[in-house]
Structures are given as structure tokens and as C-alpha cells.
Amino acid sequence: MKKIVVDGVTFIEQQKSSDIQIVGLQRGHVLIGRFSRDGADCTLTDSYFIRRWGTDEGLGQLAEYGKRPETILDKCHRPVKFDILTTIFMLECNSEIWEKEL
Asked: Is residue 93 situated within a structural domain?
């Protein structure tokens, strides 16, 4: 994280991202959505809990090819916020495919 001080005022660069990610969190929660991070604070918007993957080849197939017929997603109607330390893994998704799904 970059910091700059101008006339005694500290400005901190915020990371902005609209990357679509599958995120695995502690206690077995797996979500998909638009990921952003500000320091240790993470947020998923336009997100879903992935209740059933519905794939033959795991989460990688879901990330690359989008929702399968057997996939079950549960909509999160509010932003999901979590600390980066609760993240077990993040998997970048094919944004062209997932833009239509989210």
C-alpha cells in the first residue's frame, strides 16, 4: 500500500478492483463475486454463496466456464465483508463468462 504525505496530511492509495473471484473462506464458505480490497478489509459485491459446484472438474471448471446446469448459487443481497486473514484461497474467474451471471 502506497502512502504519501503532503503538508503533514497522509494520503493512502486504495486498491480498487472489480475482478470476479471465487473466494474460499474459513469454515467452508465458498463465494463468487466482484472482489475489492482495502488493506486487510475485503468486500465481495454482486455475490453468491456457492451451495453446489455442479462440476465434473471442480471449482476451476466453474471459474473458467461459468455456471453449470447442476450449479446452485444463493444470492447475497448485501456486500460480504471479511478480513483477508480469513481467506483460504482465491480463484480468478473468466470475467467475460461471469459478467452475464452476476
From this structure: yes
Measured in residues, the chain has a length of 102
Among 87, 83, 84, smallest CA distance to 29 is for 87
Amino acid at 39: G
Q: Which residues contact 4 (CB under 8 A, 6 or more apart)?
A: 10, 11, 13
Residue 5 within a domain: no
Q: Distance between CA 76 and CA 31 in Å, rounded? A: 9
| Angle made by CA atoms 73, 30, 101, in degrees to the nearest 5 | 35
Residue that wins the pLDDT comparison between 64 and 18: 64
Q: In the predicted model, is pLDDT for residue 64 greater than 70?
A: yes
pLDDT at residue number 17: 43
Report the number of distinct structural domains present in the chain: 1
8 falls within a domain: no
Asked whether the beta carbons of 21 and 93 are under 8 A apart, the reply is yes
Residue 81 has pLDDT above 90, yes or no: yes
On whether the CB atoms of residues 36 and 43 are closer than 8 A, the answer is yes
